[in-house]
């Protein structure tokens, strides 16, 4: 059954096709999703009941990593594949430490973009642009990126739950390398990436179900493949580790560290080596 189109939904979107942004929003407890998204999300939950917890764990990692970047003095952020920017998004977290942090959110999903733009309408230091991560040069050259971000100074680039939507043919390593080349020394790269390492049948079935039902297939990678995506960055301790093990804070630790593989993904933060300008 197709939803009736809510007021906030852009006219161009197809209400019969699920999108990862809106399925993720459903996992996070948001309201920017449609019947088709909820159906696919519930199918995923049937295979892997802790999918909503996974989405929260990714958000908590993102927040820990952004706090790390902010503590290093980074006051500008580009969050690519940002999704619907609710539930403790980058600008709110960074500004706890760096009050005037500037943030560019990027997504290709029209609902994430429409909602993000509405949410940030009164914020002169944060924008949400629609762009495809597979064209990183277009993002770096975007006028709104130029207006807010000074690439001659350190920037934190967030790629959380994004690179596993980029196929080998679309070359995620080249995507990251293009970003790295534009980032000043001292910049941070924040990555979370799904992995099938050590996973059993149910989660593999969930991946197959997702790929059969979604126009955005996922490409899971091994630990070493994910580490290779961070080539040219100095990887901060504790390295490329299962998601909940990246510098957990007390409240994140409960339960998660008991079986860190259960989230089927790795997290890492790299810094670009070299002399910083400031
Ligand atoms: C699973 S959600 C993750 C959202 C957020 N980064 C987080 O970690 O909570 C993946 C997001 O990546 C976006 N995405 C996937 N492929 C993309 C692409 N090629 N270009 C831009 N965004 C993309 C989706 O629209 C979706 O919002």
Give an overview in words.
- This protein has a domain at 53-196 and 224-271: 3-Layer(aba) Sandwich (Rossmann fold), CATH 3.40.50.
- Strands 1, 2, 3, 4, 5, 6, 7 and 8 form an eight-stranded mixed sheet that branches.
- The chain contains eleven helices and eight strands.
- It has helices at 20-27, 35-47, 51-71, 90-97, 110-119, 136-140, 143-148, 172-182, 201-213, 223-229, 250-253, and strands at 76-80, 102-107, 126-130, 156-160, 188-194, 234-235, 241-242, 265-271.
- It is globular, with a radius of gyration of 18 Å.
- α1 (20-27) packs across α2 (35-47).
- α4 (90-97) links the parallel β1 and β2.
- Helices cover 38% and strands 14% of the residues.
Number of helices: 11
Helix content: 25-40%
State the end-to-end CA separation: 56 Å
Sheet/helix structural class? alpha/beta
Series of secondary-structure elements, N-terminal to C-terminal: HHHEHEHEHHEHEHHEEHE
Q: What is the makeup of the main sheet? A: 8 strands, mixed
pLDDT < 50 stretches: none
Bound ligands, each once:
S-adenosylmethionine
Stated plainly, the CATH topology of one domain is called: Rossmann fold
Q: Approximately what portion of the residues adopt beta-strand conformation?
A: 5-15%
Number of strands: 8
CATH architecture of one domain: 3-Layer(aba) Sandwich
CATH top level class name of one domain: Alpha Beta
CATH homologous superfamily heading of one domain: Vaccinia Virus protein VP39
Note the overall shape: globular
